[in-house]
Queue: 3 jobs
Job 1
Amino acid sequence: MIRLHIGNFLGSIDTAQEVYLSMYVITLVSKFEAYIQNIITEVSRHYPATMKSGKMISVNEVLQFKKMSLLVEYLAENASAKSTDGTATEYLCRLGGKYGIPICQLKDLISEVEYFVDIRHVQVHKNGVIDSQFQHKYPNAGNLGELIKIDFELLTQMTCIFRLTANLIEVMLAKKFPKIAQVENENDIDNFFIELERICHGEKYRFADQY
């Protein structure tokens, strides 16, 4: 009976760790995508001309704002809507095309980001079980019907890849839009990425020499 209780206890620890690791993956990807949306909003706010498009807004929408600055703020906040729809490759390349930055040229890095985003998708929608689509796309990640292996090594790699991607996007955008480098963002997203920087401090980024 005692051994049974100990076994149950140890099993609960393993389960708790699995839940923690899974939640970290989900949270990290969600924060990264929120970061992409946030930086699009910042560029739009400081460089309204980047919001030019064929999209129409009604006269009533315009008239509800007493100042042009308030209208710009409204449009900037809406500019990032659906900006992370599709695959990671699609939305990062869309970002690069929109602002004329070469992030999409870093194909190996983008592939790593997409892999981690796809892991999040399986965690959320398939309870972590590898389906045929994921197995076909990543044949070396595990067998069909198995749980995706998530350990601290994978989380460290994932953390550093997202931190590097965020850094590169900021550097590229700052070259074209200098005001972005002067923006002081004190929100949860930026604080989160500061923590990522601490985790990855001293790590050798495999793709850092590509840009």
Job 2
Amino acid sequence: MNLLNRRHFLKTAALVGAISNTLNANAQAPSPRPPANGGKAKKLFHFDPKNVIRPKFVHKSSPHYAAVLSNRKLAQTSLMTGEGVVTFENGEGGAVAAGDDASQFSILQLKKDAPEIVDSFQIDPAIQGSSAKPDVQLRMELGGFHLAKNLNANSDTRGTLRVVVNKSDQSTDKTFNKVFWVITAGLKLYDQQKNKAADPKDMTSDLTEKAFGGRPVEIPGGLADLSFQVVKHKDPSLFEQIWNLFKSEPVTRLLTIVGFPAIAQETLSIIDDLLNNLVGDADPDILFESGIKQYALSKYAKDEYIQGYAGIKMESLNPGWWIMVRGQDYADILKNKPVFDATLRKLIPASVTPEQRASGNYQDPFANMTYAVFRVGMAEVALDPKFRWGV
């Protein structure tokens, strides 16, 4: 067994032991009160591969366009290009209602050649891909995490962040099994040394380096499913103990990273159970929801999926800076046309000068919005299905 596999074997063994200890502690504690509505308690972390949020594009020339645009019962996004509007279907084929997407994540991307952002429907993939190199490798850095000011972080405020990336079921790749790349982070959302809410610039890390020992995420076929979830909660008694089982060294004072590369869904369910036992009784508040979204990471993957049909709109992503935003903030973020301040690790309106920001009179329009910023690298590759670690 090589060093990389041994490291993740030991992490998994520690995970199983942690779950056992957590469940034993919960078994000895008083049973939690049932939900007020008498229903089942919602699992905070629950990965359902069928819960893919799919876009439905309605062009402005469509006879249905005006009716869809005026339907306030539907969650919808007007494309920045002005071509039309996009509504969404959940994994069961039902329409996503307005308000149900309040905590659902969406990704905006900073343009490389202009100080502006674009939505993921506007992006033409920079990674070409081909039948000879159909696959994509991906690296992720957390470039900053901003907690809304009106959420009033205090010394007891913690957060648990989880990213899951996997090959989409719609991928043209039929060679590789679907596996899941899981990054989990423990966040201290209050900086006790500074006696204030944590600065976004202190919430940075090379996620794939820390989580997977430098191994990139592998997406056969270049068509990816992505899930992003953040839960704010109080500091549960076992929180630090559990994270200390995994970390070999602190990432920062405020950030701890745990990763599980290329795991089966059954293992992901075990991780979910651990996280739910950790934070489920610690006054949790969902900041980002975990509905799955599908993205093309290469032109080849996008073309293979769309097959030339103009009526199909697909979200794509490029290497560079991604902004994870919540549905409830999406329109306001677009309206304020942000750029990313790489020093402060915050969004600022493109129209605001450094002098205005330093004047003392600057009112941050993004202060009461929660968002995360990622820096992402990609490369087109041909993965080898015969390759085995340690062989």
Job 3
Amino acid sequence: MPSNKPNKQLLIGGAAIVALLLGIVWYVQSGLESSVVPSASVATDRQSSNPERAIADQAAEEATPKSSGNEIPIPHRYRFADVAAIEAVEDEQDLYARYTPDEQERLRGFYRSYGSGPSGAARKYFFTDIFSFHSRAQLEWLVASGFPTPDEVLAAEPMSNEELRDMADSGNYKAAAFLLHREAPAEGRLLKENPGSADNPNTEAFRLAVKNDELERQLLAEPSAFSAYAIAASAAANEESYKVLAAYELANLLGDQRATRFSAHYESSLAQSSRDQSSIDTSAALSSFRGLVFDTFGGRNSPDVRIELHRPRFEMTPANQ
């Protein structure tokens, strides 16, 4: 008689997501707003006749790039190297057609490491990775939210870690993301070789973990769904499944509805793997989510949380519903 273990894992994984979502709803509704000091502009909004509309308008103005013609400009705070814009297309297939097969493969691998979904025949209706899109509006949202464009990903490839760290230390958002994407797997490998090294300040694994934590905090200081995906990829490299789930929920909170699908696909992959993933620590996942939310919204220079939660969301097309 065939084993029903995968089904149990899926049920437990589904229960983990439900528990995490319930915890998130409670957490967001029980004082997240009060943990952030309002900005002066928001204080003025509160005195207006329609403060929530003013907040939503301000968020939309800040987050949406002014695209025109055949190009979508990249917001200055998200620019990397000399890439200032991306060609405006209606579908990811049109975008990838501009690159060689080898470049396409490398780009797909990069984007899937942050979040992946069904592939093959389902591609038209679902999202295979974090840079999947099926309309110009969706591409505009990705660019406005700081997702690295293909040209930026390719521009970062020949750069050394030292070059990226210098740029990150100077405040470059995507340089920090590219560096974390390289260093997190290196940290994971070191911890596998010597599990106890995580608690020993004299080890390379410990020093690298400290640097990676700094990169994560730098990314979360810019409340973008891509920041959350960067944390998810880092956690996946270290096999911290509870933190991966927490980061995906943060991405959803920050406007990317696709995150719930990436989260479900990640859980399904865990259930089908050879490793024992029969239980996911929902308490750890919720605790991790709270920490990520605090790092995102509770910092000294963070914008008002109400503005962030009113930013435009990833606009699903009817085929994507």
